[in-house]
Amino acid sequence: MANRSAGVAAESVGARTVGLVARTRRPCGVYRPFMASTMYERVGGEAFFKSLVDRFYAGVASDPVLRPLYPQDLDGPNEHLRLFLIQYWGGPRTYDESRGHPRLRMRHAPFAIGLAERDAWLHLMLSSLAEAGLDAQDEAEMAEYFRATATQLINQMGRPPR
Ligand code: HEM
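Above: inputs. Below: predicted complex with protoporphyrin IX containing FE.
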């Protein structure tokens, strides 16, 4: 019985905590329990990342700047990027299990990435993202992550990134 009461108390504390989080106002004006879920869950899990990455690679297939950097068969790169993004945004950690630590700077070192390559990559990824029609706050968060990471992967001398 004592245990039971303790359980109820803990639950109420939990409920109050979630309640407070749920009433936190986000910059876009939407109220929601943003601490109660991962981006992976909010966007709909694996299906979202599969369509995002499929759209992105459909663009790579005919992009004059990016296509020469990638191998003939885009299935491998497609799978790696999908698994990486799923893991990054809080989904299953299959990427680490199959590929090891991401080490993105190191893995991109063999490819010459300057401003033109970064811009082409971002253009394709941000338009693929926009097509998904996500909640504005989630889209902004993901877009900011792509901008920052793509800029970090520039490995060619030249003008400093804008
Ligand atoms: C800045 C422009 C970028 C260019 C030009 C670029 C290009 C490439 C290329 C050519 C590959 C190798 C494909 C292969 O041969 O298998 C690759 C792999 C990969 N890229 Fe990028 N990339 C860029 C940005 C990014 C960003 C921003 C991310 C993450 C948000 C990312 C994540 C990955 C991942 C996860 C892999 C696979 C790594 C592996 O497991 O081997 N890339 N990228």
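The pocket of protoporphyrin IX containing FE is lined by residues 66, 69-71, 76-77, 80-81, 84, 99, 104, 107-108, 111, 113, 117-118, 121, 146, 149-150, 153 (CB under 6 Å).
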